[in-house]
Recover the amino acids of this structure.
């Protein structure tokens, strides 16, 4: 917790659970990424936290932006950033949204299929496209599914199809899985990218760019490597697979940009047991999966917890949210250790909540308001 957040929480008016993000931490994270790979353009993944203050601060630092929708494109343009600093990185786009983005000046689009290429060719003539490939997410705490990307062997055909339809076949992208703690996870994907570059060159198509994606982690319960370690490992892989002909590169940090910049303050609503003989306490908070903690699904992301009674004797607890939905349980398979002295009404700090909390917060599910957000 930064001093700025501590002071904000000390003086704020009580209004339920909230997430508080310190912009100074976001700025420091951006500069760390920029220094780690100085020849790589940073495209902040807006979906991680689209707060206008965060987008404005990053725009002022010179960041570019990875957008998943026209709504996110509008948010970025509102900061004064030019459309040349936007990538429409979702591979699943309505044709009318592609057309609108193109009219707004966006020229960089992600694809992973022939059909998506054809949509872009119809309404965004001459645009640049990069093909996303499937990637092994081993080592990630939140591995991505097969929803996005094509098999690497198909990518050259997709890019050739784009070329033949008058689009600029620009490059290759991948994502090694969110919260990726293995700094070498990019190596295999870069080997695949280099093979696609060669296959396209044999067809007379010169690719220019590799999108390194996201996956850069934030610290939860365990330490994670710093940005410089990722930069060194990725650059070594680029040299290994591309030699002296290193392509233009971009990266899309989201969690790694804002995750450690924010925390959530929440209140204990109830502490109870399921039977007289049960030793396991159930601790219910005024926030749960539907209030912004969706990434506790399958207990994938385990957030650090701080209480006003830290230092007292602890025992394992099940941690759950307040809604009338049986799925609203954060940690049960692996209970959390909380003080035996914890009481109803105590405030708990959930750390490293700057990413994927406000954007996962439901709109009035069970009548609970969306998670309040403060950026300071």
């Amino acid at each position: 917790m930064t001093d700025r957040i501590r002071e904000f929480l000390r003086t704020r008016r009580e209004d339920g659970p909230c997430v508080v993000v310190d912009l100074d931490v976001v700025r420091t994270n951006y500069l760390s990424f920029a220094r780690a790979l100085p020849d790589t353009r940073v495209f902040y993944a807006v979906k991680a936290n689209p707060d206008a203050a965060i987008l404005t601060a990053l725009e002022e630092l010179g960041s570019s932006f990875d957008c998943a929708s026209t709504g996110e494109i509008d948010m970025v343009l509102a900061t004064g950033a030019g459309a040349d600093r936007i990538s429409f990185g979702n591979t699943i786009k309505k044709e009318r949204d592609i057309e609108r983005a193109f009219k707004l000046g966006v020229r960089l689009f992600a694809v992973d299929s022939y059909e998506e290429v054809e949509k872009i060719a119809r309404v965004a003539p001459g645009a640049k496209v990069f093909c996303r490939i499937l990637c092994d997410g081993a080592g990630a705490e939140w591995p991505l599914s097969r929803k996005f990307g094509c098999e690497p062997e198909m990518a050259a055909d997709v890019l050739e199809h784009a070329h033949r339809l008058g689009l600029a076949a620009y490059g290759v992208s991948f994502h090694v899985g969110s919260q990726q703690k293995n700094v070498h996870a990019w190596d295999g994907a870069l080997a695949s990218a280099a093979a696609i570059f060669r296959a396209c060159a044999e067809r007379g198509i010169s690719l220019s760019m590799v999108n390194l994606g996201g996956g850069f982690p934030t610290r939860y319960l365990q330490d994670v490597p710093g940005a410089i370690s990722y930069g060194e490992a990725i650059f070594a892989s680029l040299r290994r697979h591309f030699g002296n002909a290193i392509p233009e590169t971009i990266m899309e940090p989201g969690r790694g940009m804002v995750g450690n910049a924010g925390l959530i303050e929440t209140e204990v609503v109830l502490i109870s047991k399921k039977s007289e003989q049960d030793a396991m306490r159930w601790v219910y908070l005024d926030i749960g999966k539907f209030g912004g903690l969706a990434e506790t699904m399958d207990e994938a992301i385990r957030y650090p917890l701080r209480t006003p009674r830290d230092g007292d004797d602890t025992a394992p607890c099940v941690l759950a949210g307040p809604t009338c939905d049986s799925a609203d349980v954060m940690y049960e398979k692996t209970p959390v250790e909380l003080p035996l002295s914890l009481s109803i009404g105590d405030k708990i700090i959930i750390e490293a909540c700057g990413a994927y909390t406000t954007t996962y917060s439901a709109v009035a599910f069970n009548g609970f308001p969306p998670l309040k957000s403060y950026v300071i």
Notes: The longest strand covers residues 262-272. The longest helix spans residues 186-202. The CA atoms of residues 223 and 273 lie 33 Å apart. The two ends are 13 Å apart (CA to CA).
